[in-house]
Amino acid sequence: TSNESGKTVYKVGIDTTYPPFEYEVDGKYVGIDVDLINAIAEDQGFEVQLEAMDFKGIIPALQAGQLDISMGGMSITEDRKKVVDFTDPYFDAGVSLVVSKDNSEIKSVEDLKGKKVAVKKGTVGANYADSIVNDIGFEIIQFDDSPSMFLEVQNGNAVALFEDYPVISYAIAQQDLGLQVVGDRLNDDQYGIGVLKGKNQEVLAKINQGLKNLKENGKYQEIIDKYLAD
Ligand code: GLN
pLDDT tens track of the chain, all 230 residues? Predict the structure, then answer.
């Protein structure tokens, strides 16, 4: 589709409960991903329509043709590459183990034995939990969004959760959630913007070019600093 000014409008799926990447303030979507895709669109002469959804719904919506582009602080993974073509990475993330601030018992994932662990559906953190659950032995409780997953540990129903390091550290810095990160990141995931595999290759190339231009002209860093500089 195109708008009145004749520019092509691409639908972009985002997870709006995921600060600092995408969230809602006064009914408006803001965050690193939102500013980045808007700046890329401006640089490359297209327009975007942001579609908020649960993270787990983004790739299915792309596959169903309801979206042209996926964002959502989405990590580039080999598994997802079977159905999604990703741009060059635009942010270094990585999954962390998170527990309550007053928990000194959990020092690594091995200590999760026999405990309840909260994860967010469809995420790398959930996949990570799945990959170790049989060896270690714990109970997985699934949530649709990050705030609900955080709450499960905050209220003591679960002892731990898995969340991307930049997201949990931003959340902890913004407000006293009573949570802490344990140890080093468990992987070195990077975020990428996606299109359906083999489709929309022209827009993929434009996004990569836009990303490159924004890195060169300082706009990319400006966006990162707007949300992450202290
Ligand atoms: N980066 C993680 C993933 O891709 C989590 C993304 C999210 O929760 N929005 O699975």
Answer: 778 788 999 999 999 999 999 999 999 999 999 999 999 999 999 999 999 999 999 999 999 999 999 999 999 999 999 999 999 999 999 999 999 999 999 999 999 999 999 999 999 999 999 999 999 999 999 999 999 999 999 999 999 999 999 999 999 999 999 999 999 999 999 999 999 999 999 999 999 999 999 999 999 999 999 999 86
* Type and span of the H or E element at 166: helix 165-174
Q: Whose CA is nearest to atom 5 of ligand 1?
A: 123
- Atom number, ligand 1, closest to the C-alpha of residue 72: 9
Residue numbers of the domain that contains 219: 9-91+191-228
Q: How far is the CA of 91 from the centre of ligand 1 (A)?
A: 12
63 and 102, same domain (yes or no): no
Amino acid at 154: Q
Query: 103 and 87, same structural domain?
Result: no
Phi, psi of 83 (to 5 degrees): -125, -10
168 lines ligand 1 (CB under 6 A): no
CA 10 to chain CA mean position, Å: 20
Same domain, 201 and 177: no
Residue indicated by tokens 């297209």: 46
Asked if 166 and 196 sit in the same domain, the reply is: no
Task: State the distance from the centre of ligand 1 to the C-alpha of 184, rounded, in angstroms.
Answer: 18
